[in-house]
Design goal:
Blueprint: E1 7-14, E2 19-26, H1 27-35, H2 41-49, H3 62-71, H4 80-87, H5 94-97, E3 113-114, E4 141-142, E5 163-167, E6 172-174, H6 177-186, E7 195-202, H7 204-213, H8 220-225, E8 255-262, E9 267-274, H9 275-282, H10 289-296, H11 303-309, H12 336-339, E10 355-359, E11 364-366, H13 372-379, E12 386-393, H14 395-407, H15 411-420
Antiparallel strand pairs: 1-2, 1-7, 2-5, 3-4, 5-6, 8-9, 8-12, 9-10, 10-11
Helix pairs in contact: 10-11, 14-15
The structure holds zinc ion.
Residues 115, 117, 120, 122, 133, 135, 137 line the site of zinc ion.
């Protein structure tokens, strides 16, 4: 679990094509790989923020959500614990991860404080012992959960004791000659000739690079270990919002939002909304990678994360939800499908009856502390160049914004384009 832990990864490389063919990994490394799926997106932002080895900009304007929370005053949040909980989100698997040889989530247990009152029903936590609980107490109780949760004999997230084959697009299988033959065959190789076996030392820094490459590349092993500049995904077209089969669009469950569009190029400059939309937008930060992927993956982005999720080698602690129930709030349209399976619901992250301005690249400012004149000046736009739309944002649009935020700096323009082409000024 130390940051200095190193794994030996046997990697088969095709020098001619400058490509990793596959890697042979032990169970401890594959467990770390699977644990990446449990990391909350806000945590991933923090991890990648200061990671220098990434050559490309990852996570589009998604990062701005995190920055906006950091920049907003405590008084805009429903309770001031929320600010800390959004900035330092944890997953349900936090304690499982402490069994890993290398724990990427490493939330500091000495920096988690809860309410000391025995009868208090709040399940909030804070990274500061100066935060006040909803019941009025200072949250001074140092988190005293068990250090580790016992795991099965095989590992934490893997379902068998074996070594594994990991393909460049992160399909993980139990090691066998048959699997290797199939991988080589599928890639058009008739044998090992021309391929070189390399033993790599992979530790904390390398896993961070790999984590970053999940968002920019469909071949993250090549991207991370051969230091190839990978920007393939950035140029892909975004498809219109798609709902998974079984999803029902509930018109009542939508936020009404006013958006301002520049006539010239149809860019959404900013949106005016209330706390309802914010509660949904900010929940992007608490989504574990697996859930963010299952919501937004449509085979155009996060394909390799999808492969990792679908691996038949996952078991044990992978089987249950990763999202703590206190993050599920009653007005969250993005996670409405989860609300049914959780009994407790929070009331939302943000202070009620508050107006916010959200920019195209997801910088959020409370209306009370923003200057609309300043905003328009910054955009260098005349009032006559602007068109106002009243639209409803439901789950489909939220998913579309989420997807756009991960790969572009125009989350609102790309995420809402399908609503803004046909129906100007339509009231909802
Ligand atoms: Zn309390």
């Amino acid at each position: 679990m130390a940051k200095s832990e190193k794994f030996s990864l046997k990697v088969l490389i095709d020098d001619k094509r400058n490509k990793v063919v596959f890697a042979e990994a032990d169970q401890d490394f594959v467990d770390v790989l699977f644990s990446l799926l449990t990391l909350p997106m806000g945590k991933i932002v923090r991890l990648l923020e200061n990671h220098k080895s990434l050559k490309t900009d990852v996570l589009g304007c998604f990062k701005n959500l995190h920055r906006s929370v950091a920049d907003m005053g405590n008084d805009h949040f429903e309770t001031n614990a929320w600010k800390s909980m959004l900035l330092h989100p944890i997953s349900n698997k936090e304690f499982h991860c402490r069994n890993l040889k290398l724990n990427m989530s490493h939330a500091d247990p000495n920096k988690m404080f809860t309410c000391p009152r025995y009868t208090c029903s709040s399940r909030a936590y804070s990274n500061f012992n100066t935060t006040r609980c909803t019941c009025g107490c200072l949250m001074s109780n140092q988190n005293c959960s068990p250090d580790v949760i016992p795991c099965n004999a095989y590992g934490v997230f893997v379902n068998c004791r074996s070594s594994f084959i990991v393909t460049d697009d992160l399909k993980v299988s139990e090691n066998s000659i048959g699997v290797i033959m199939k991988v080589l065959n599928d890639l058009g190789y008739t044998g090992y000739s021309g391929l070189r076996e390399v033993l790599l030392d992979v530790g904390y820094e390398e896993v961070l690079t790999l984590l970053g490459c999940l968002f920019t590349s469909e071949v993250p092993l090549t991207c991370a270990f051969l230091r190839k500049h990978c920007t393939t995904r950035m140029h892909k077209m975004l498809s219109p919002p798609a709902l998974k089969s079984g999803d029902v669009v509930d018109a009542a469950r939508a936020c009404s939002v006013k958006v301002f569009v520049r006539k010239l190029d149809r860019e959404v400059l900013y949106a005016e909304c209330n706390e309802d939309l914010l509660d949904s937008l900010l929940s992007f930060l608490v989504l574990p990678l697996e859930l963010a992927c299952s919501l937004s993956n449509d085979n155009t982005i996060l394909g390799c994360v999808g492969n990792l999720c679908r691996s038949p080698c996952r078991g044990g602690a992978s089987k249950s939800w990763h999202l703590p129930d206190y993050y599920i709030c009653s007005n969250n349209n993005l996670l409405d499908h989860l609300r049914k399976s959780y009994s407790i619901c929070g009331t939302g992250f943000m202070q009620k009856k508050t107006k916010f301005v959200v920019s195209n690249d997801l910088i959020i400012t409370p209306m009370s502390s923003s200057s609309t004149i300043g905003l328009l000046k910054k955009m260098q736009v005349d009032i006559s160049d602007l068109e106002e739309y009243q639209i409803s944002i439901s789950k489909a649009e939220l998913i579309s914004i989420l997807r756009a935020s991960l790969i572009s700096s125009s989350a609102l323009t790309n995420g809402l384009s399908s609503l803004l082409v046909k129906k100007p000024k339509q009231e909802t």
